[in-house]
Sequence to fold (446 residues):
Amino acid sequence: MDIVRIIFFAFGAAVCGFFALFAYTSLREQKRRAATVSAIILILFGLTWFGGYYYLEPSPAVMLYAAGTVALFVIFFFIPLGQRHPIETGIISGKVDERDVAFAREEYLPGSEKYDQYYAMRPENKAIDDKLRKLPELLAPGGRLYDPVQSEHIGHIFAVIEGMLDKVDGPVESDRKDIEPDEMTALIKNLAVDLGAVEVGVTELNPMYVYSHVGRGPEKWGAPIENKHKYAVAFTVEMDYWNVEAAPGLPITEESATSYLFGANISIALASYIRSLGWPARAHIAGSNYQIMMPPVAHDAGLGELGRMGYLISPELGARVRLGAVTTDIPLVTDHPIEFGVQDFCAKCLKCARNCPSGAIPRGGKTDVRGVMKWPLDIEKCLHYWRMIGTDCGLCMKVCPYSHPQALVHNLARAGIKRSAFARQISVWGDDLFYSRKGTYPDMNG
Ligand code: SF4
Ligand code: SF4
Fold:
């Protein structure tokens, strides 16, 4: 067989092999549509390529042209092509008051001192918050997906986290150990990974990402937050793919709860270790004890980019992560923000916005939010839906193309998306073709 035929057959076999692998991976992931579409492409391509060879007996020039077209597609998919935009951050105008955070506002009960004080300060939020409070609380009877056993069980996990709030800070050992920053950074990162973190990054703490006043938790409500730590160690905890796939529903809420619990364990252990070395450190855990805004801090620490849906998107796990952090003064070596095409991909994709049942995710361009260009999430709309169903929703996380699990076919797509504008456009179309523009989930709005 001459070289042209070998090239022709090798390229045909590679494309067929890719779609066979795609079909197999999709079956394993229980994605029937993706498995069917890739099997159809495999059959059509195989019949055209190899059937055409036997019945049409193409000339060497035609075979080279066909193989060249495939090669060009692959090259354009993987070479650096087109612009990749970072998140645009200007001068950040003012700190966020934690008392304004929607999860804090949910806790101000009519008749309470906090309620009177808060709405005297922010009367513009009263009507929308009162409307939200008329709906059942999360995990409480009345929500459409409420289950007396499972909802109770998840609530208990959150209660365990609440019980850890007094462990986030503590006395600092007086005998201070001076360890080289690079050695200390490696020690802390390894410890975090040993404890269950997936990715760990360090950044200088931007004071603008420290909340201005306490809005939740055991500290005095309304007290100024005095955290002046120099560094933040941020980390991700993976959310299980199958539980995220079950969104919207109780499994993803249980997954959130357990991920927050893991995150709390990791950050409390890290902070305690750092304090034992003679340096101040404070853990920031869920269950109302954050002093810092986690997504931008994690972005600064190089853990990912902020996507259209407002979550951090990590290069490996996409949106299927929860975040934890420790702030400290121990000298560390910092990481840098990373970019891998998320801003440009999100500008084209819109899948989370199309699938958001509450319309909380914007479909248009970014807007300037306190000096950061981002897609602002309408958190009140999101929480309204959560309360209606009685649990976390997580559909945006589920349908996001970055949330596909680790597998060769998805990793190849991620590698292309990171480099090439061509790959980003093809992958947006491809995700719609293989997984549909609209996810499959029960309609809870009715
Ligand atoms: S969690 Fe659900 S309701 Fe909230 S933004 Fe995501 S898709 Fe929309
Ligand atoms: S679903 Fe699409 S638009 Fe939304 S965050 Fe994921 S990649 Fe971005």
In short: Residues 307-309, 345-346, 349-352, 399-402 surround iron/sulfur cluster (ligand 2) (CB under 6 Å). Strands lie at 200-204, 231-238, 281-284, 305-306, 312-313, 321-328, 367-369, 372-374. Residues 250-276 form the longest helix (27 residues). Residues 369 and 376 are 7 Å apart (CA to CA).
